[in-house]
Design a protein that fits this description.
The structure holds 2 protein chains of 2 kinds. Chain A is mostly helical. Helix content of chain A is 62%, strand content 2%. The N terminus of chain A is likely disordered.
Chain lengths: 123, 228
């Protein structure tokens, strides 16, 4: 499969009329006619068209990063951090977090109310 | 009562009352990490420094809430903040205390003026409140504006002009409070009485008995704002 470096090598070959792409080295009038070898050019263009676009080629940097991320996440979870628990235990803990939060809010409200009532009765 | 109906397509405004919005409770000392194959119990302290995004399992409860975000932001910002609405006694703790001297009217007027942490919402059939409610300014929810706009049928109404103005001022007062030790201007005798109710209050130098050598050796209380 051709890649970008193959294309560049072909473009710089002596047989390829790369100079005709710019007007800085010669006048338009005296520019020699571009030679065109149909079978060779057609074959080359066909090869280019047949080649998959670069965006469809697997990005090795992206793939490598994904592997690295996965490794990081795996070591992150399997390390000293966190205790493996079952799904049932996880759900039990989550339920207790909700109950505890609501209980603590209620206790705080009652505690503050007690102060208010004591002061109110004294005044 | 103090509510008014609002069209389904009306923009979201401060004072709009929604039901069944998600209130999430996160525990920093007990965090459940959802792995691909396994759950892990951890603490936030253990995982915070890693700088990695994580998936966690948290409890969520559908609750009633009132829009706290001001009108302009509620129409342009990415997120909208709401404060939870719960039963009046749950938020204030007042009605559970059976104090004969503390009449209902007194709670709803004087205490509502003194305590800046909640906002009283009376029962109202039009909005689905069959008992006294209160906004708890300390419990906030944050939701996507665009997603909340798609759920505008959960909006049961909004505060009328009178209540809305009061709510706007009260919520701004709540967030602009600064912590100070309210006993600082009391004289020694008044402070002694105050301390009977708030034993944790520490006197300022000018509230301590003067020693023969002036204020030498007087104790400076810790940073202000230790009490409500």
């Amino acid at each position: 499969m051709a890649d970008a470096s193959n294309v560049e090598v072909k473009a710089e070959s002596p047989e390829f009329d790369a100079g005709a792409t710019g007007a800085w080295s010669e006048s338009f009038i005296q520019r020699p006619k571009r030679r065109f070898s149909f079978p060779r050019e057609a074959f080359f263009i066909a090869c280019l068209l047949h080649t998959s676009p670069a965006t469809a080629v697997p990005d090795i940097w992206y793939s490598a990063k994904r592997i690295e991320d996965a490794a990081t996440a795996s070591s992150f979870l399997d390390g000293a951090i966190g205790r493996p628990i079952s799904r049932a235990e996880a759900l039990r803990i989550v339920d207790s977090i909700l109950v505890r939060a609501e209980r603590e809010r209620a206790e705080l409200a009652e505690n503050e109310a007690t102060h208010i009532i004591e002061l109110e009765m004294e005044l | 009562m103090i509510y008014e109906s609002v069209g389904v397509l009306a923009p979201i405004c401060q004072g709009d009352i929604f039901v069944d919005l998600p209130r999430i409770d996160v525990s920093l000392r007990q965090m459940i990490i959802a792995g691909d194959m396994q759950e892990y119990e951890s603490t936030w302290e253990q995982i915070a420094g890693k700088g990695e995004p994580l998936r966690i399992i948290v409890p969520v409860r559908p609750v009633a809430a009132i829009v706290a975000t001001q009108d302009c932001d509620a129409q342009h910002n990415r997120d909208i903040t709401l404060c939870e609405i719960r039963g009046f006694s749950q938020v204030t703790g007042l009605e559970k205390q059976s104090a004969p001297s503390l009449k209902a009217w007194k709670i709803l007027t004087q205490q509502a003026r003194l305590n800046l942490k909640w906002f009283y919402l009376p029962p109202g059939e039009e909005i689905g409140f069959n008992e006294k409610k209160a906004v708890d300014f300390q419990v906030t929810l944050r939701v996507s504006r665009e997603e909340l706009e798609t759920l505008r049928h959960l909006r049961k109404g909004r505060l009328n002009a009178m209540a809305d103005e009061h709510f706007r001022e009260r919520i701004s007062e709540f967030f602009r409070r600064y912590p100070y030790d309210e006993w600082y201007p009391l004289n020694q005798e008044e402070f002694a009485k105050y301390k009977e109710h708030y034993p944790e209050a520490k006197p300022f130098p000018w509230q301590q008995p003067q020693s023969p050598e002036g204020q030498k050796g007087s104790e400076v209380p810790p940073k202000a704002g230790n009490l409500p």
